């Protein structure tokens, strides 16, 4: 197996990572099955694999600063910084209300060539927010994530406007296809996940999709 194939296998087979919903996300989406990637942070071998792959991507972009997005990105940039020697900071969703009024925590050189790091990319809303907030302080050149939700290209347009490149270690479809091939996922689960991927905002308004998810939820297995 290649390192990427190993990561797909780990995501697909680690108990509790692929969660059956419905899950209501901070981006305002309703998701039928969602990866709880933070569980992988508790597994040293998995975290080491993820870190090595993310560091490889950071070096491709000649990144000089790693900025972890609160909260899922913080453990990732910590591990990446130790392995690579690239300095790290983390960024808050809201400014600190105490002595530090900034959304950035840590030491950094102004206009440093920076990668935002997080566990996943969905509809780009949160990532665009951080690009806008940081653009006058840091040069955001890349967004590095573990998981790309494989949503339609129109959801990448806000990021593309800032000439920021998105690089994911794996895509949702890669994991879905692997799980289907290895019989870790039934056809009905694949079907409802594909429906949500193709129409992330409104898939659940179709009665057949919602009924299918409720059937999967009652069954309790993918």
TrEMBL record:
Translocase recorded as keyword: no
Pathway, per record: Pyrimidine metabolism; UMP biosynthesis via de novo pathway
Source domain of life: Bacteria
Descriptive protein name: Phosphoribosyltransferase domain-containing protein
Molecular function per GO: orotate phosphoribosyltransferase activity
UniProt cross-references to PANTHER family, sorted A to Z: OROTATE PHOSPHORIBOSYLTRANSFERASE (PTHR19278), URIDINE 5'-MONOPHOSPHATE SYNTHASE (PTHR19278:SF9)
Top-level taxonomy: Bacteria, Candidatus Kerfeldiibacteriota
GO biological process assignments: pyrimidine nucleobase biosynthetic process; UMP biosynthetic process
CDD domains, per database record: PRTases_typeI
Keywords, in A-Z order: Pyrimidine biosynthesis
């Amino acid at each position: 197996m290649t390192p990427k194939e190993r990561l797909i296998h780990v995501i697909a087979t680690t108990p509790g990572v692929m969660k059956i919903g419905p899950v209501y996300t901070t981006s305002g989406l309703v998701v039928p099955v969602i990866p709880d990637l933070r569980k992988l942070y508790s597994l040293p071998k998995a975290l080491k694999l993820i870190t090595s792959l993310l560091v490889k991507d950071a070096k491709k972009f000649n990144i000089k600063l790693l900025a972890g997005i609160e909260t899922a990105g913080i453990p990732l940039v910590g591990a990446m910084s130790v392995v690579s020697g690239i300095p790290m900071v983390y960024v808050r969703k809201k400014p600190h209300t105490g002595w530090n009024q900034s959304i950035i925590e840590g030491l950094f050189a102004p206009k440093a060539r920076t990668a935002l790091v997080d566990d996943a990319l969905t509809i780009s809303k949160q990532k665009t927010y951080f690009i806008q907030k940081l653009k006058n302080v840091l040069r955001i050149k890349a967004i590095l994530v573990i998981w790309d939700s494989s949503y339609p290209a129109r959801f990448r347009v806000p990021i593309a406007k800032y000439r920021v490149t998105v690089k994911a270690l794996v895509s949702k479809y890669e994991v879905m296809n692997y799980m289907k091939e290895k019989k870790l996922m039934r056809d009905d689960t694949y079907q409802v996940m594909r429906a949500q991927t193709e129409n992330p905002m409104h898939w659940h308004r179709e009665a057949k999709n919602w009924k299918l998810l409720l059937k999967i939820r009652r069954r309790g297995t993918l």
